[in-house]
Amino acid sequence: MNAEVRQLTTSNGQWTVTLANGQVLSADYVCLASGGYPKASMFAWLQNLGHQFAEPVPSLFTFNLPRHPVTALMGVSVEKARVKIEGSKLVEEGPVLITHWGLSGPAILRLSAWGARELSVKGYQFKAHVSWLPDFNEQSLKENFQEWRRLHPAKKVLNQNPGLPARLWQFLLEAAGVKEDLRFADLPAKAENALIRNLVDYVVEVSGKTTFKEEFVTAGGIQLSEVDANTLMSKKQPNLFFAGEVLDVDGITGGFNFQHAWTSGWIAQGLHVTDRI
Length: 277
Ligand SMILES: Cc1cc2nc3c(=O)[nH]c(=O)nc-3n(C[C@H](O)[C@H](O)[C@H](O)COP(=O)(O)OP(=O)(O)OC[C@H]3O[C@@H](n4cnc5c(N)ncnc54)[C@H](O)[C@@H]3O)c2cc1C
Fold this sequence. Notes:
- By secondary structure, the chain is α+β, with helices and mostly antiparallel strands.
- The longest helix is centred in the middle third of the chain and has 14 residues, at 138-151.
- The mean pLDDT is 93.
- Helices cover 23% and strands 26% of the residues.
- The chain has helices at 106-114, 116-121, 138-151, 166-175, 189-200, 256-269, and strands at residues 5-11, 14-19, 24-27, 30-32, 53-59, 63-64, 77-85, 91-98, 102-104, 125-131, 202-207, 217-222, 240-242.
- It folds into 3 domains: 5-57 and 217-276, FAD/NAD(P)-binding domain; 63-133 and 203-213, Elongation Factor Tu (Ef-tu), domain 3 (Beta Barrel); 138-201.
- The protein contains 6 helices and 13 strands.
- The strands form 4 sheets. The chain has a 6-stranded antiparallel sheet with strand order 6-9-8-7-10-11. Strands 1-2-3 form a 3-stranded antiparallel sheet, with no helix packed on it.
- The chain binds flavin-adenine dinucleotide.
- Residues 4-5, 33-35, 216-217, 244-246, 255-258, 261 line the site of flavin-adenine dinucleotide.
- Flavin-adenine dinucleotide (FAD) binds next to helix 6.
């Protein structure tokens, strides 16, 4: 029909669906699959249904690091990094991509999904601690440096890349004040400590996220406690069903949001429920 629904009302077990073009439809069952709404005000046309809506907040976004020097490494990705949000329990390990605006990649997107509400409360202003070598900690890396210094005193530090993309390794060396031609024997303890910290606890100030349009999913929507999980029928309005992102369900990356939309659509359309066939 390709038409906007303006209103849903029910009376004596019958649903009335009013379209924007003025057309009025009558239905025994209604399935609401309007997707996620990014603003609470967009749920206004559903207010009369008596449902509670979990405040919508964006999910699956990337972190902005305005004017941060690391963004010069745009396009560099690290297969396994650990990112922790300061002052929270949010921590994720996985691929991280450096972009021209900040940090992206699966580990960041997962953090944004698990932390959708918490990061929204922080106004998307927080510190993130990145370990580019999550299999090491400060102590184990220090032991490695001691070993390298002992075994290869004449070797340039630059040539002892611990497995990072070359541009990132050079960047972290420079940030720690380690010159390109510096040899292990001449590496000052202060610079070594700074380099080790950069490798396992690189702190960035996140300020903002990618804009709404680039986001994939909205967390929030119809509260799940008001919906029968077996049929996805409203507990408030008989014969009103919900499917997809309009429900307060959001998933991490990996197709889980599509899967939820399809599966909930299949459940809501009720072909598995004999009295609706
Ligand atoms: C750019 C982008 C990329 C994505 N990539 C992925 C991915 O790779 N993997 C993944 O799992 N998920 C992904 N998602 C998320 C996924 O697309 C959604 O979770 C999924 O499409 C939700 O399905 P839905 O049917 O609930 O809602 P939608 O697909 O949003 O469909 C809802 C439809 O209802 C219409 N509608 C809304 N209100 C009304 C109204 N009042 N009257 C009539 N029609 C109305 C809307 O216009 C829309 O056409 C992506 C999303 C975006 C935006």
